[in-house]
Amino acid sequence: MIRILIPTDFSLLAQRAADYAIRLAENIDAEFTLLHVDDVKRPNYAFITKLDTIIEDQAMKALNDLAGSLKESTGFKGRLHTACVHADAVNGIGDYAREHGCDLIIMGTKGESVLKNRIFGSVASGVLEHVRTPTLFIPVNAPQGKPTNIAFATDLTDLDRELPELISLARFFNAYIHVLHVYPDVIRPETFDEERTKLELMAQNDYPNITFTAVMDADIISGIDRFIESDAPDMLAMFTYKSGVLSYLFDNSYTEDMTFHSRVPLLVMRKHMED
After folding, report:
1. What is the pLDDT of residues 74-102, one digit of tens each?
2. 46, 97, 113 from 230: Cα distances, Å
3. Which domain holds residue 79?
């Protein structure tokens, strides 16, 4: 069973991500939790405890209404829980995911511009930077449906550990994994024969739905974008360090052609080297 956490602030963006999440996993053994993090600061007065109860009751009613609406619109009949916590939004999401053993977080992104808080939203940006649980970011205009083709952008430095982790998720959907490496023109393409052989061996002994593509481009993001344009995967997966991913994605040299966020769900997983 896979445990999926769906943070929501009851916005249309969050509701679309929740709908995507339910439809994504409707035929697999999944357990969902709709989580609302109340991050409104309170004055330190004695009567605040009663106010907390009122706000939590209202949030739980909205959560239960949303759960009912999702079940009605998707036909989902499985486990769909609701929870509300009072905390900083990013910490609340990360702590809940860790304490409840969530395998995946699914949340919405705006997909409107290359500015980080316009693409991800401030909370999603914080989750991207600081939360360790694998997180799937859903653009507002992402097509519904299960991923059948996952592009896995990798620098090949820790492939033996990262690919099996991605395979464990891809198995749920019987999805193809297209391992993608972007390299500069100073490297000869035949350099990757060893990596290609390694992938073929892993495919034969573990998971057959794997291909390898090396794309020449001095700009990593541009190379990923070109692959997405030509091969049209329905999900992009990346492993990142715990921090610094935003400075990497939004470095000035990468932002001009960075358009994939507007349409392709982005799965972010953490590199093992930080453990």
Report:
1. 888 889 999 999 899 999 999 999 999 99
2. 61, 35, 22
3. 2-139
